[in-house]
Amino acid sequence: MSLIHEIDFGTPASKSEKMISLTIDGNEVTVPEGTSLMRAAMEAGIQVPKLCATDMVDAFGSCRLCLIEIEGRNGTPASCTTPAMQGLVVHTQTQRLKDIRKGVMELYISDHPLDCLTCAANGDCELQDMAGAVGLRDVRYGYEGDNHVFAKSKNDNVANDRWMPKDESNPYFTYDPAKCIVCSRCVRACEEVQGTFALTIEGRGFSSRVSPGMHEHFIDSECVSCGACVQACPTATLTEKSVIQIGQPEHSKVTTCAYCGVGCSFKAEMRGEELVRMVPYKDGKANRGHSCVKGRFAYGYSTHKDRILNPMIREKVSDPWREVTWEEAYKHVASEFRRIQYQYGRNSIGGITSSRCTNEETYLVQKLVRAGFGNNNVDTCARVCHSPTGYGLNKTFGTSAGTQDFDSVEHTDVVIVIGANPTDGHPVFASRLKKRLRQGAKLIVIDPRRIDLVRSPHIKAAHHLPLRPGTNVAVVTSLSHVIVTEGLFNEKFIRERCDWDEFQDWAAFVSMPEHSPEAIEQLTGVPPQALREAARLFATGGNGAIYYGLGVTEHSQGSTTVMAIANLAMATGNIGRKGVGVNPLRGQNNVQGSCDMGSFPHELPGYRHVSDDTTRDIFDKLWGVKLQNEPGLRIPNMLDAAVDGTFKGIYIQGEDILQSDPDTKHVAAGLAAMECVVVQDLFLNETANYAHVFLPGSTFLEKDGTFTNAERRINRVRKVMSPLNGYADWEVTQTLAQAMGLNWNYTHPSQIMDEVALTTPSFAGVSYDLLEKEGSVQWPCNEKAPLGTPIMHIDSFARGKGKFVRTEYVATDERTGPRFPLLLTTGRILSQYNVGAQTRRTDNVMWHEEDRLEIHAHDAELRGIRDGDWVKISSRSGETTLRALITDRVSPGVVYTTFHHPTTQANVITTDFTDWATNCPEYKVTAVQVGASNGPSDWQIEYDEQARKSRRIVQTLDAAE
Amino acid sequence: MQSASTDIATRAIGIINQLKDEEGPLLPILHDLQGEFGYVPQEALPLIAQALNISRAEVHGVVTFYHDYRDHPAGRHVLKLCRAEACQSMGGDAMAQKARELLGIDWHGTTSDGAVTLEPVYCLGLCACAPAAMLDGEVIGRLDAEKLEEIATEVRL
Hints:
heterodimer; A: alpha/beta; Ubiquitin-like (UB roll); Rossmann fold; Dimethylsulfoxide Reductase, domain 2; 6-stranded mixed barrel; 37 strands; B: 157 residues; alpha+beta; Glutaredoxin; 4-stranded mixed beta sheet; elongated; formate dehydrogenase (NAD+) activity (chain A); 4Fe4S_Fe_S_CS (chain A); NADH_UbQ_OxRdtase_Gsu_4Fe4S-bd (chain A); 2Fe-2S (chain A)
């Protein structure tokens, strides 16, 4: 094991297909046209000394170290800014160049501290490397002159006003201006890679400094802590605090982030079993070397003191927890589940798979339910997020997944973002999108709230359609209305690829006057002219891509909106090539994978219905059981059945349904009615308050496996440390299955993936060997596509002909009225993740320590609410309190909050209305009233008390085994 | 009554709105702000950033790059002495020394009565008439001790 060193080519790759040849230091090199001489040299293995160049950002030409000589040309041009040309003869090491470089290095070092031995970057410092490379032996200028290094002048002890103290305000990295060589790499990374523009160079000449914001501390500036600047810094100026504390890592492994559905690849850099830092991996095909504050820095939860490391049992949920051995826990669960089944019937228990766990673990949980419990009562958190995506895209295209890879965004011309807030929910994708927007692509945002993408430095949406929550179908259908009635649809594509009769039926439907932008304005609040212009732009602006999130799916008409989106993409011919497509932004790291692995009660792995005899037959034979051919219970049905007394036991792996699912009181009642609730998690989450058995979980750093991201990419997760709790989650599920009498003997997750490949056609070609070789693959991966499928539906749709579906707008039953006049919609914030179980246990809380209620000044004034006041928010389901934030990001009549903190319990308010097709809850629309409040609601107080009690642990085991 | 900072904001927004749609509006806005206030008020920078859809950092980077943009008001007069090579070779150093003595201030300082601010400048393009100076925007060639004394008296009137 050693540290993975990625080659820094100095400047980005050229995308040109024309190749040219030249000679560098006597070596013939062939590179694409537009490649810099620096990169061309590196391709030939020749490293030209450099400081200001790095291949994540464009060449800048400021450090004057990478100079070269070209035969027949005068001077010593910078190799980073000089393009390679056919037939050039280049020399990178001549006496003249050596002298210049040495002189430049002398100047750098004369204003740099010489504390290398005690410097955090020791061993990972490009300045140090370059001093070595150019053979620096002496600094003629000395170290005592004008400088930024010493707080006081050495000669007269007078304060040095060029010196600036270290900025340690960011929880994860420090900025030490004394070590800065003003190469501008951080500034450029912030601009070009992240797209936030939080950094600048202030002053000029010798006074130049890196400045966050307007000479502010990092934490007060516009910085979003993505870490791109830290990664770009060649010295110790920007350094991870963890490196300062621990020291340089000695080995690393490539793994996949366990936060959102972007699925960024990281190098986990280690010292022994201690994680030093997570560094985004340039070969990661989803993130291309970029990261966000969560994946890069927020991994501290994995060793947080709140982690539960021993299994625990209790008779009643009012009892304190009792620590037990693993054997006792398995025995207890097995006998309880068998007792319940004996007493209440085979279908009285079920399981919930986790979108946070690996494909292999998810596969095992559904296998346990199907083969071990003998029913189909398995569901997953996708139920509450992207189940409508699965349904809608399957109906129209024939596959339950997004059509593109993330690279596709580099080729798009018009983007529709609907019901998603990528800068907060999917930050790395947002950075890639913003980069494309800065290159000139147009953006249409359809969202009730003015998200950052609508307008932030250097990007601006061409159109923002601020629709009323719950009217997605009306708006998307109306876009199609404009496209069809104005003759902007792509007839050639439709005739070739779709069913023409179905199209005509659909076209007649959308053309009806009641779907015109003018007619729907009353419902949606969207100005008709803007909607018309947006539709024209999308239909005529070139490659059109649609990205959407939970703002689309989590509605009573979620599936309908997904199909309306698919219709729109087909009608405009935007399917089946780079730069187009329908792209669901998946919420969780492995929500795509958990769906793929057969987590739904009606589907076996690979989205094959349980009623399909041939599919069942495959599993019947392999598992030696007889699978049920009727779909099992979905999560809400399980809870209903529990309240009715027919569902009594559940195994929940890695999901906090009490906090994340709607109508908290109903969830609580369902759980309370069960006799054996088994929760497997890292922490005593909110659901565990109602659990009888707690099995400690392991983090993504502690196990091998795979995650499948939003682009269907299967990425390896690699174990970098031993599980603190002793076992990876798949081992726990396996042992539990063994305790229930199943003969499972997997010794490594790769064997589980082999079983998936054996049984599931779209995964037939997937193996750990292939992933090792390719880094990652996108399913379908089989004989037809041995290296996977970056873009789907290229020549024909998976289902054959694309299907147009009529999408009638039906208003949700959740309506505003005199008692509840406002519409609440919910979302996320950059620094926090989902229910916050992980991010709340990291320093990310510095950015978001509580959930706030965003309310428009007009609505606030009517209610006498000032910014920061405690307010009560109530709906038909319940009420809670939180503090108000007055903003014009939401329109009058709409309020917004996040659900990251359990004390807020936003889901006490959300209702039990769900998507008609998939039961996906309608989180995004709740009629509410808001009023002044003095503090927490009765429910919050009661709940806190109950939660506190239920978390008591009686220590019976000595130290962890 | 409006507080001082809301007043600055209102006046700044007026200037920003007038110029924001021109091509390359940042420098003209900063010029007009300095014309209006005698300096570029720090509180105007976020307003510019917002109006031009750029970051606060970028505005800060530009403002601090140019020596001419002040972050606080100057004296009633501004005297700039050329410190560049041609003027130095024609006795500029002595003029610089003399000016500082006469006014009793160092570079970038303002006399305690607020009469004048003294600044170095690197070339006024008047090398043929070195040493050169500039008083309140008007260039002065062939500066000598006598002229400096005149200036020093004049600015204090």
